[in-house]
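FAQ: What does the model actually see?

It sees only this:
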Amino acid sequence: MNRLGGADLGYIKVGVAVLLGSLATFCKQYCLIIALVAVIVFLDWLTGIIKAKIAGTGWNSERGHDGFWKKMACFVALAFGIFMDFFIPVALKTGVNVELPFQSPFGMIIGVYIIFNECISICENLYHINPKIMPKFIIKLLEEAQSKLESQTTPSDSDQS
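And it is asked to produce this:
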C-alpha cells in the first residue's frame, strides 16, 4: 500500500511534480531577474545603513520604515510586470484575437529599471562613505543608461494621440 497518513502517495507525487514543474518553467524566465533585484535591493539597504553610520545620522526608524515600504514597492512593481507578461498576451489573444510578435517584456524592463535605480543609489552611498572607492563616472554611466532605458520605454506625445 502506498499510503502516507491516509493519503495516496500517487496523488501527492503527481501534485508535487506539477507544482515543481510549474515553478521550474516560471523560474526559467524570471528567477534571475528576481534574484538580481533581491541582491541589489539588499546591497542598497546595506550601503545605506553604513552611510548613515559613517555620516553620524544613525538609524532613524521613520526613515527606515519609509525605505522598507519603498523597497517593497519595487517588488510589487516587478510582480506587476511579470503579471503583465502573462496577462497581456492572453488578453490580446482571447479578447481581440491578436498575437504579439514578441515575448512580453514588462517584467524584464521593470526589473532592469529597478536594478539601475538601485545601482545608482549604491554608488552614491559608496561615494558618501568613501569618495576614493567610487569614481563619479560610474554613477554618470548608470544615470545615462537609465535615461536611455527611460527614453526607449516612454511613449512620446505623438504616440499618445
